[in-house]
Specification:
Oligomer: single chain
Radius of gyration: 17 Å
Structural class: alpha/beta
Strand order of the largest sheet: 2-1-3-4-5
Number of helices: 6
Strand content: 5-15%
Shape: globular
Largest sheet: 5 strands, parallel
InterPro entries: Cobalamin-bd_sf, Meth_synthase_dom
Number of strands: 5
Length: 188
């Protein structure tokens, strides 16, 4: 429950090891352990919430403002409708921004109507949709997105998609490094 110590550790890791290593080697193992403790004992949800807030703040701080990016059309990052676990989108946004990619973070539980409006308004080069839980990995959302004059690459990520059907033209990304590589390929 020491948010200052957590913030310092995250800042040190981000500075020395970068976004992807910090996410994979520090954040994910700790959050997994805290969640396992909670499942076994029912205790520690306050620790998980504190960690989530610290991680979110650290990755937001690690995300530079990109005014003149490599991409002329932004990349949209959003959760599937009703999906509230948006934390993994923050390291993705941070790593892409550090690589000069313009990103628009749309956050958790974005209604499909709002997602469709954002796609129409921005004509993005890519869209990444996150589903932590399988019940939110709805392929109908993918087919409901509007077509734009310019091609939009559509990616889905998160454990919710592992067993779900991913309809064409969407592509599954399996982890943070895979998502970064896929999005970079879409914007070049």
């Amino acid at each position: 429950m020491d948010s200052i110590a957590v913030q310092e550790m995250l800042a040190d890791s981000l500075a020395s090891d970068g976004v992807i290593a910090t996410w994979n080697e520090v954040v994910r193992p700790v959050l997994t352990a805290v969640a396992a403790r909670w499942q076994l004992s029912g205790a520690g949800v306050e620790v998980e919430h504190l960690l989530n807030e610290c991680v979110l703040a650290a990755f937001v701080r690690a995300t530079p403002l990109v005014t003149l990016g490599r991409n002329h059309r932004p990349v949209l990052l959003a959760c599937m409708p009703e999906e509230r676990h948006n934390l993994p989108l923050y390291p993705l946004a941070a790593e892409l921004a550090q690589r000069g990619v313009v990103v628009r973070q749309l956050g958790a539980a974005l209604p499909v109507v709002a997602l469709a409006a954002a796609v129409r308004r921005t004509a993005p080069s890519a869209v990444v949709l996150w589903a932590q839980l399988p019940r939110y990995a709805d392929p109908g959302v993918l087919t409901a997105l509007p077509r734009t004059r310019q091609q939009v690459r559509l990616f889905v990520g998160g454990p919710g998609w592992r067993r779900g059907v991913v309809t064409t033209p969407a592509e599954r990304v399996d982890d943070l490094a895979d998502a970064v590589a896929a999005v970079e390929g879409a914007v070049t």
